[in-house]
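Narrative of accomplishments. A recurring question from our advisory board has been how the design workflow behaves on a single, concrete structure rather than in aggregate. To address it, we present the structure tokens for one chain from the evaluation set, followed by the sequence designed for it. No filtering or post-editing was applied between the two.
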């Protein structure tokens, strides 16, 4: 027995040593260029390439983890005082099968491609990626948090060329040292990884092997040595722009602001200055975002604000440094954060009250006068992010029979964000903090409902151990808002907290307050590497007074959430599958009185078949919920639980034509409410320079308890609800045509129609009754009647023949068509010409009936607003 145990220990030690050897750091020795740098033409025939050492022996990570790749790859790296040069040879024994689709920058992933990652900070957490596909399309970005976050909005100025020959294809890069960050040293050691993707095989291979079950990524890449004598370059980049804009829109009789046309010429400046070798100042003066794609259409019937992703370049670049999320995972709370950049340049808070014969010209957005940010990471591992922006006072111009007056709709404001994070123990531990501040210049009484000042801050700690397989994270946050009593009263009674609720004894509404304080936090512990099983569990909390929406994003306060997640991943081929994953989730929620307000869980999973088709499905159980927002400030409503099931199937994504179909079905325990949705996504690439996608979607929503309004009768509030039958149909259409990687045409269009019809009107009577039907009273025919001329419902609650109160007809039809066409020409590195046409059509009425043919036909007969603009910017490097 003893010798058998000894043999097993020796065998285990041998296996462990083999595993350690397989993941040992690889080192590449760069060669200085002397005397001539290579020409960037994609052909690796320069003399220096024959002298440089060759990096090879890549290892496959997908689909066969740890195996030899189907095709070999070699690379070489040389440098001079100003640039890093990379040459990559992607061998291919089937040259005719190389995929080389032409597209716009950062959209060339559906092709064979290669990339080099440089951890020039050598912090083992951050890497700059410079990639290219076989057609020469750049794919560049920044990896942060040891690879957990990838930001492809970063667009450095660098050169690359590719070439296909009878041995495969090659890529040749020139990466200016001014575009990356590094400390000042006599000799440098940087992190290095070179990767290759073969599109037809869905195959990834890497120079430094990265096991599928490993934790972290940047910390595991190889090393680049022998970089000596390079100087920190002077980094001053200026990007001035000029823009010419014209608008065509429907005329409106009597409205002096709706003449049918408008135009302007404007200009601004974007810039970038290297403060030190590892800190950069970005600034913008009078920025323009006219070429940004429009937000998707929606009908929001909830009490909460919708979240829309940031699309403006100035705020996207470097956003990883400013990230301070208040939760974990990708659930409904994943958007909650101390900094939500869409608050800058937001729509004005105030809408003027107009009298008879008055017309107003109200700005669509607050103007950003200027903004600046400092970002970077010091040689000691300190990440720094500082942002400051100033927005203008916005005024509406109001006309009354030729007499003009102005009314402020948004005060001038200053927005500040500061983020620090320090790495310890080779990146295994980080401690950071964030502070945000908003200060508004409010000196007009009608703006007293806006917060005059808002402050928030927090500290976060993250630690990883056991070769980064396990992690623990703790975050805190505090907030304070200040303003007039009206502003703080509005904050207390907003949908995020509803302090006025009569059944919330742990909340106190104070109309004399001029400030409101709160706190929040999150704690999580998990396993993300080392084997097939992963897990995460933890908790998040938001005190009732927590408020960050002046510069952050918070959906709801007064909540404590507990969660558990378990997952099993298989990345090697098993049976029919190339890979698959199964997840289990469970959660509970309480308010700050300790009352349980929700619970639920789900099981979901899916994978990729050997033929590259994919599927995903899941089933979710949401228990009975105590909904504090259902009555919009009234007592909490006990809402029935529900079952939700979802699925999707996708065809082989390596083919020129592919599609996905999917849907979801939600069934409530009230046996009435349900929601069904279905979508189809099709993608076709008829030529290597062209792609078209069409994504129709349809949903049917039947909700027995949909809030309509609150009325008062006999000194008591009446919370009125109806049964909603809503149908929604939309189509997202995209077309892309790229003559070259620097000259592209893109079109986006979304027709969208939604109709909602109400019946079975009711008032809430006992919102927490155990039996569902005891929670409300359904109005009978002799209690409610529809008034055709007034488009309203009259309610005679006590049936005495006298109307007690009325509610406006809640039926709705909403139609919208948004489109955006952009021609983008990067005529020299960093310098671009944009030609843009945007069109908006929208209309609404209160019929409530849905008709596909009628609604779509009438949608394109709605008078349109057209915007045409030409934007020209030119990049200077000093």
């Amino acid at each position: 027995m003893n010798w058998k145990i000894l043999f097993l220990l020796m065998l285990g030690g041998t296996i462990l040593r083999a595993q350690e050897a397989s993941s040992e750091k690889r080192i590449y020795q760069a060669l200085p260029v002397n005397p001539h740098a290579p020409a960037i033409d994609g052909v690796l025939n320069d003399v220096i390439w024959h002298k440089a050492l060759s990096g090879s022996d890549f290892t496959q990570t997908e689909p066969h983890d740890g195996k030899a790749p189907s095709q070999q790859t070699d690379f070489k790296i040389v440098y001079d005082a100003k640039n890093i040069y990379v040459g990559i040879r992607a061998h291919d024994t089937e040259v005719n099968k190389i995929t080389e689709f032409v597209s716009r920058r950062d959209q060339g992933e559906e092709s064979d491609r290669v990339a080099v990652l440089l951890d020039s900070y050598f912090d083992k957490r951050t890497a700059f990626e410079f990639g290219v596909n076989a057609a020469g399309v750049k794919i560049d970005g920044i990896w942060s948090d040891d690879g957990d976050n990838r930001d492809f909005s970063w667009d450095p100025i660098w050169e690359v060329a590719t070439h296909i020959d009878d041995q495969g294809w090659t890529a040749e890069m020139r990466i200016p040292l001014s575009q990356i960050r590094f400390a000042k040293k006599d000799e440098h050691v940087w992190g290095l990884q070179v990767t290759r993707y073969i599109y037809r095989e869905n195959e990834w291979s890497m120079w430094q092997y990265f096991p599928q079950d490993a934790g972290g990524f940047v910390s595991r890449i190889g090393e680049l040595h022998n970089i000596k004598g390079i100087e920190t370059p002077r980094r001053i980049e200026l990007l001035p722009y000029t823009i010419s804009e014209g608008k065509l829109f429907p005329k409106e009789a009597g409205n002096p602001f709706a003449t049918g046309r408008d135009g302007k010429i404007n200009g601004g400046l974007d810039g970038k200055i290297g403060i030190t070798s590892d800190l950069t100042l970005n600034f913008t003066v009078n920025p323009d975002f006219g070429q940004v794609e429009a937000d998707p259409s929606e009908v929001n019937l909830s009490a909460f604000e919708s979240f829309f992703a940031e699309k403006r370049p100035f705020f996207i670049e470097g956003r990883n440094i400013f990230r301070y999320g208040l939760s974990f995972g990708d659930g409904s709370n994943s958007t909650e954060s101390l900094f939500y950049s869409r608050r800058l340049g937001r729509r004005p808070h105030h809408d003027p009250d107009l009298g008879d014969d008055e017309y107003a010209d109200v700005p669509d957005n607050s103007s950003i006068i200027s903004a600046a940010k400092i970002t970077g990471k010091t040689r000691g591992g300190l990440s720094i992010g500082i942002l400051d922006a100033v927005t203008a006072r916005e005024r509406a111009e109001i006309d009354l029979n030729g007499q003009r007056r102005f009314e402020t709709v948004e005060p001038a404001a200053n927005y500040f964000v500061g983020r620090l994070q320090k790495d310890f123990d080779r990146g295994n531990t980080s401690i950071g903090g964030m502070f945000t501040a908003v200060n508004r210049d409010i000196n007009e009484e009608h703006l007293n409902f806006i917060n005059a000042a808002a402050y928030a801050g927090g500290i976060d700690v993250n630690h990883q151990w056991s070769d980064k397989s396990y992690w623990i994270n703790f975050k805190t946050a505090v907030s304070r808002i200040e303003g007039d009593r009206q502003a703080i009263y509005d904050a207390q009674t907003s949908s995020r907290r509803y302090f006025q609720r009569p059944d919330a004894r742990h909340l106190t509404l104070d109309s004399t307050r001029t400030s409101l304080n709160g706190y929040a936090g999150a704690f999580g512990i998990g396993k993300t590497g080392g084997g097939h099983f992963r897990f995460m569990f933890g908790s998040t909390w938001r005190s009732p007074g927590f408020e960050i929406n002046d510069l952050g994003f918070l959906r709801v306060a007064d909540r404590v959430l507990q969660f558990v997640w378990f997952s099993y991943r298989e990345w090697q081929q098993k049976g029919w599958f190339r890979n698959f994953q199964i997840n289990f989730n469970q959660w509970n929620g309480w308010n700050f009185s300790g009352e349980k307000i929700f619970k639920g869980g789900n099981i979901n999973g899916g994978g990729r078949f050997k033929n590259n088709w994919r599927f995903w499905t899941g089933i979710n159980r949401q228990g009975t919920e105590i909904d504090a927002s259902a009555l919009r400030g009234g007592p909490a409503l006990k809402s029935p639980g529900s079952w939700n099931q979802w699925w999707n199937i996708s065809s082989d994504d390596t083919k020129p034509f592919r599609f996905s179909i999917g849907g979801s079905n939600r069934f409530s325990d009230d046996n009435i409410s349900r929601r069904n949705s279905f979508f189809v996504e099709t993608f076709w690439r008829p030529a290597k320079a062209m792609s078209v996608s069409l994504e129709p979607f349809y949903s049917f929503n039947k909700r027995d308890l949909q809030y309509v309004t609150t009325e008062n009768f006999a000194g008591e509030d009446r919370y009125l609800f109806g049964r909603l039958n809503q149908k929604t149909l939309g189509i997202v259409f995209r077309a892309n045509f790229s003559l070259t990687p620097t000259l592209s045409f893109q079109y986006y269009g979304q027709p969208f129609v939604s109709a909602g019809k109400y019946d079975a009107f009711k008032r809430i009577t006992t919102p927490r009754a155990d039996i569902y039907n005891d929670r409300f009273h359904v109005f009978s025919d002799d209690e409610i009647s529809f008034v055709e001329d007034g488009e309203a419902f009259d309610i005679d609650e006590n049936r005495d023949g006298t109307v007690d109160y009325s509610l406006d007809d809640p039926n709705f039809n909403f139609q919208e068509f948004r489109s955006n066409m952009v021609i983008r020409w990067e005529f020299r590195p960093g310098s671009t010409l944009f030609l843009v046409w945007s069109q908006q059509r929208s209309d609404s009425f209160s019929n409530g009936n849905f008709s596909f043919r009628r609604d779509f036909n009438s949608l394109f007969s709605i008078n349109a607003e057209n915007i045409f603009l030409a934007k020209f910017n030119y990049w200077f490097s000093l």
